[in-house]
Design brief:
By secondary structure, this protein is of the alpha+beta class. Helices cover 23% and strands 25% of the residues. It has 3 helices and 6 strands. A 4-stranded antiparallel sheet has the order 1-2-5-6, covered by helices on one side. A two-stranded antiparallel sheet has the order 3-4. A hairpin with a 3-residue loop joins strand 3 and strand 4. Helix 1 (106-114) runs antiparallel to helix 2. The protein is globular, with a radius of gyration of 20 Å.
């Protein structure tokens, strides 16, 4: 069901974020994000003068390479468009995330390592949805391996509303860990 009918309004800003996950031939996983910000009308800009309607203000790419344990093996950021010349140099700071594992506390870790003047806010923010993409991307491969291994309590249980140990999702997929009525 779509949202309710909005009040009368004019468009002001568009942010597009696309995230994708890939299994590499070498057994590692690539998670990629692409962010593009535009304005639907010509806009004054303090540094560059004017931006044409729909001309990107930001056009940025991020790739995380992780292993099966979700440890970050490599990271690459590219800033094709940004509002200021120094922005493109910030991508190198992403290397601080190498060696860390996507796990509970990821958001806090990213903000601690890359927050403020340390890195590009937009590239750092892309690391947050890529964590969710990691779980979605690795999920199928992990499920196949888990079928042949002894059953331990999946980390997903109690990680969100639907995966509560007292809800029907857990009752259906992991009945041995279901704690509901």
């Amino acid at each position: 069901m779509p949202l309710s009918e909005p009040a009368e309004r004019e468009p002001s800003h568009v942010r597009r974020i696309e995230c994708r996950g890939f299994l590499r031939r070498d057994g590692l996983w690539d998670l990629e994000a692409h962010l593009v910000d535009t304005k639907p009308v010509e806009t004054a800009h303090a540094w560059s003068g004017r931006l044409a309607a729909d001309e990107p203000i930001h056009d940025m790419w991020l790739r995380l390479t992780i292993d099966d344990s979700m440890k970050v093996v490599d990271v690459e950021g590219v800033i094709d468009r940004s509002p200021y010349p120094p922005c493109s140099r910030a991508a190198a700071s992403l290397a601080a995330i190498k060696g860390h594992t996507i796990a509970p506390g990821w958001t806090i870790l990213v903000k601690r390592l890359l927050g403020g003047v340390t890195s590009c806010t937009h590239l750092s923010e892309l690391l947050l949805p890529l964590a969710t993409v990691a779980y979605q991307t690795l999920g199928m491969g992990r499920r196949a391996r888990a079928q042949s291994a002894p059953q331990t309590r999946p980390a997903k249980i109690d990680s969100c509303y639907a995966y509560s140990s007292q809800r029907e999702v857990v009752a259906r997929f992991w009945p041995e860990f279901y704690e509901g009525p």
